[in-house]
Design a protein that fits this description.
- This protein folds into 2 domains: about 130 residues, Leucine Dehydrogenase, chain A, domain 1 (Rossmann fold, 3-Layer(aba) Sandwich); about 220 residues, Rossmann fold (3-Layer(aba) Sandwich), CATH 3.40.50.720.
- The protein contains 14 helices and 15 strands.
- The strands form 3 sheets. Strands 12-11-10-9-13-14-15 form a 7-stranded mixed sheet. Strands 1, 2, 3, 4, 5 and 6 form a 6-stranded mixed sheet that branches. The chain has a two-stranded antiparallel ribbon with strand order 7-8.
- Helix 1 packs across helix 14, helix 7 crosses helix 8 and helix 13 crosses helix 14.
- It starts with about 20 loop residues before the first strand and ends in a 13-residue tail after the last helix.
- It binds nicotinamide-adenine-dinucleotide.
């Protein structure tokens, strides 16, 4: 194997969104029928970053797409690492799910110890993966980066301080920062249209870590969210849903308790969210949510991808032909990974305002550029994003983690 720490960076730019992954690992569980995958799309400075998801039916192809997306995110946001992803084909609600995650992480230990910085993703909340890392004596899921610090204990304390910083709404900064970025991608679209948030409507598929936080910050900004969906179905209220009240009703899997719904909410099948008559549609749950089979159902003016790989390329082309741009995952939801690395690199701390200000500015700037290119030149937001990803800031030396 190539030494991942070499500066040759074999799998990086140019065109990292088109090249084959650097590495694919396939794991089979000894106790259940779970299988899992690690795909490292590319290494930079010997490191790659990307969360670990668990869902029944997760495939290698999906994890490859997600790892490529992570490489695009790190390059687009000038982060000095490559992209990777872990995925486990197993039901996260199965009582054996935590043990499966533990065995997967144990099997991936050589990578998690030195090269792969992982985090939460669909079906795997941050507190759970951190709990597994602690059990494996790896402290925290950013371990591979933290151990490179000159003072790992101080870095770990900073990371924990940032992740656990309290923010409004009773949330923790680490749990909401990614969704905050998504919300500001949506708000930047409204700015581009010259439309006040109060005159703008949105529908959100998924109200877990990403979708829930996006919904919270959009409603806080005054945007009317008329529909949300979780795995159990779609909830609809044309006058606008009371988002904070609904978020209070979520369980640990991001599902809303139907027995305690406020009055005036219509319940519909979960697939109906796609056809909500809104300005902005935010897929924030599964990958491949928008396909050629349902792309004609979309009535929104813009799709903002909080979920990774939410729109298939064919569906995106069909939407573009109808004049509907897609703000791609590797920009719209990249606040989560960008912030994690700002924290690791000591560029933000446990003061939430600093993190929110930086991400808000960054996101508005990128979305304004993408939507201007779409309106003025007919270039898709993804194409603009790929141009950024093809031209990341060069590494000038080893990554220094303070
Ligand atoms: N958590 C992160 O830090 C992070 C960062 C970037 C991107 N993402 C992406 O965001 C997406 C969601 O991740 P998450 O961490 O919020 O997951 P989560 O497990 O916290 O929440 C998932 C939500 O989606 C709902 N859901 C599941 N299947 C659904 C379906 N078929 N239809 C409608 N709703 C469904 C669940 O009920 C839940 O509300 C994933 O694509 C993930 O890759 C997550």
């Amino acid at each position: 194997m190539l030494n991942p720490g070499t500066s040759a960076d074999p799998a990086v730019t140019p065109a990292n969104h088109r090249c084959e992954p650097y590495l694919r690992l396939h794991w089979t569980d000894s106790h259940t029928d779970a299988v899992g995958y690690l795909v490292v799309h590319n290494l930079r400075g010997g490191l790659a970053t990307g969360g670990t998801r668990m869902r029944a039916g997760c495939t290698l192809r999906e994890v490859e797409d997600l790892a490529r997306g992570m490489a695009n995110k790190t390059a687009t946001f000038d982060l000095p690492i490559g992209g990777a992803k872990g995925g486990i084909d197993f039901d996260p609600k199965d009582p054996r799910a935590v043990e499966v995650l533990e065995r997967f992480c144990e099997a991936m230990r050589p990578w998690l110890d030195t090269h792969w910085v992982t985090a939460e993703d669909l079906g795997v909340p941050q507190h759970l993966i951190d709990q597994v890392f602690e059990k494996l004596d790896l402290d925290q899921s950013y371990h591979a980066a933290i151990r490179r610090s000159a003072d790992p204990a101080a870095t770990l304390a900073r990371v924990r301080g940032g992740l656990n910083a309290a923010v409004d709404g009773g949330f923790l900064l680490g749990d909401v920062i990614g969704g905050f970025g998504v919300a500001h991608a949506c708000l930047a679209a409204a700015v581009q249209w010259g439309q006040a948030p109060a005159d703008t409507t949105a529908a959100i598929q998924g109200v877990g870590t990403m979708g829930g936080a996006a919904a919270y910050y959009l409603s806080e900004a005054g945007m009317k969210i008329t529909a949300v969906a979780d795995a159990a179905g779609t909830l609809y209220c044309p006058a606008g849903l009371d988002i904070p009240a609904l978020l209070e009703l979520r369980d640990g899997y991001g599902e809303i308790d139907r027995s305690r719904l406020p009055a005036g909410i219509e319940q519909m099948p979960r697939g109906d969210i796609v056809s909500a008559d809104v300005d902005i549609f935010v897929p924030a749950a599964i990958s491949y949510a928008i396909t050629p089979d349902n792309s004609f159902d979309i009535r929104a003016r813009v799709v903002v991808e909080a979920a990774n790989a939410a729109t298939t390329p064919e569906a995106e082309a069909m939407l573009a032909a109808r004049g509907i741009p897609v703000l791609p995952d590797f920009v719209a939801n990249a606040g989560a990974v960008a912030w994690a690395w700002w924290l690791l690199l000591g560029e933000v701390d446990d003061v939430p305002g600093t993190s929110f200000d930086r991400l808000r500015t960054t996101m508005h700037n990128k979305v304004a550029q993408m939507l201007s290119a779409w309106t003025d030149e007919g270039i898709t937001p993804r194409e603009i994003g790929h141009r950024w990803a093809d031209d990341p800031a060069p590494l000038t030396g080893p990554v220094v983690i303070p």
